[in-house]
Amino acid sequence: MKYFQKVIARCQTVTAGETGASIVEYALLIALIAMAALVAMRFFGGEVSTAYSDFGQSLHDN
């Protein structure tokens, strides 16, 4: 989380004015999407791994 705070702080210092606000908003949006993806991978990771293993095994058996 500290990494995203550093990125946002860096964006704020590099840019100024209205464009700076939009860059920060995009950075926050990207951070939110990344966190949602990580949560989804943790939640569904075992099921997806099992599905790929079963699929790979069925290909190997044929």
Number of helices: 2
Shape: rod-shaped
Major sheet size, sense and barrel closure: none
Strand content: under 5%
What is the N-to-C order of secondary-structure elements (H for helix, E for strand)?
Answer: HH
Write down how many β-strands occur, each being a DSSP E stretch of 2 or more residues: 0
What is the typical, i.e. mean, pLDDT? Answer: 81
> What ranges have pLDDT less than 50 throughout 5 or more consecutive residues?
none
Structural domains: how many: 1
What's the alpha carbon Rg, rounded to whole Å? 19 Å
Helix content: over 70%
Structural class: mainly alpha
Quaternary organisation: single chain
N-C termini distance: 46 Å
Q: Summarize this, please?
A:
The chain contains 2 helices and no strands. It has 62 residues and is mainly alpha-helical.
Description:
By secondary structure, this protein is mainly alpha-helical. The protein has one domain (about 1-60). Helix content is about 90%, strand content about 0%. It is built from two helices and no strands. The chain has helices spanning about 1-15, 20-60. The longest helix has about 45 residues, at about 20-60. The protein is rod-shaped, with a radius of gyration of 19 Å. The N and C termini lie far apart (about 45 Å). The model has no long low-confidence stretch (mean pLDDT about 80).
Key features of this structure:
single chain; 62 residues; mainly alpha; 2 helices; 0% strand
